[in-house]
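Incident review: delayed structure delivery

Summary: a single-chain prediction request sat in the queue longer than the usual turnaround. Root cause was a stuck worker, restarted by the on-call engineer. No data loss occurred. The affected request and its eventual output are reproduced below so the record is complete for anyone auditing the incident later.

Affected input:
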Amino acid sequence: MTSAHVILGLDTSNYTTSLAMLDIQGKFINEERKLLGVKKGALGLRQSEALFQHIRDLPMLSKRINKINSNYNIVAIAAATRPRPISNSYMPVFLVAQSFGETMSNLLNIPFYSFSHQEGHIEAGLWSLNLKMNKPFLTLHISGGTTELLKVIPIKNGYNIEIVGKTGDISAGQFIDRVGVKLNLPFPAGKDLEKLCEGELKNNIDLPIAVKDTKVSFSGPETFIYKKLYGNVTNSEIAYSVFYCIGKSLYKLIRNALKNHHYDDILIVGGVASNKIIKAYLQNHLRDDGIKVYFGESNYCSDNAVGIAALGMKSYQYDQGDMV
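Output delivered after worker restart:
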């Protein structure tokens, strides 16, 4: 049996250790991920704690991914080495993916490609939809640490990215996690908070919306909802109201940005993009405005190395003279 030529992607983010393999045509081979452990009641991890867990878990994940399918030949390695694709973007956790990736590429004498975590989210969304964007487009990146509206310009081996809208304080993901932890849910709290909305009548508490031009704020709605925690409202109502507030806020942010940035397409990625309530709100309202909205598949909205492997595949093809 002929061995598949594959690209290995690595991503060591604030939340997840992940490995992924795609073949050189972009076909999925396999992947392994592990959420970082967070103590109950905590709102995340120190960088040193996260870095330690990545170093501990990468060997285990590599053993797992090899056990699933050992019939492959790694021809290039790609890693998320920084949060955003700009020169001064830095976060210690990404040094793990960079170090492991460069070490393996040196030992195997194969190319090493460096990308940002944000580029990985964008590419994972496009890859999951089998969608190619050959012209500039907007991306809304909403995750545990990021709420940014981006103008994205495709280039040969990644993206040029400009922020055109963002949060002025906490991210949408932090808003969700903080409320979830207040309700004694584990961190990250998104999935468990969303489960509270299932099977019950949804009553919206009507949280304040804080959007000015292309800046959104969630600290005001956060303070407002805390006052309701011990009132005559259910946890289900609190959860639904948080998600509805985020959807409404993000829609207003996008509409404001579109006044100066005229695009017809918007890709929505990041862990928060998998939330059904936020997704439905944005889909319905943006569709009514004539905007084509694309949500990455839920499994590839959260942190993963598939997008990084896909970017590595493009770079490898480019270097081989096979333009993507």
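Verification: The chain has a mean pLDDT of 94.
Action items: add queue-age alerting; document worker restart procedure.
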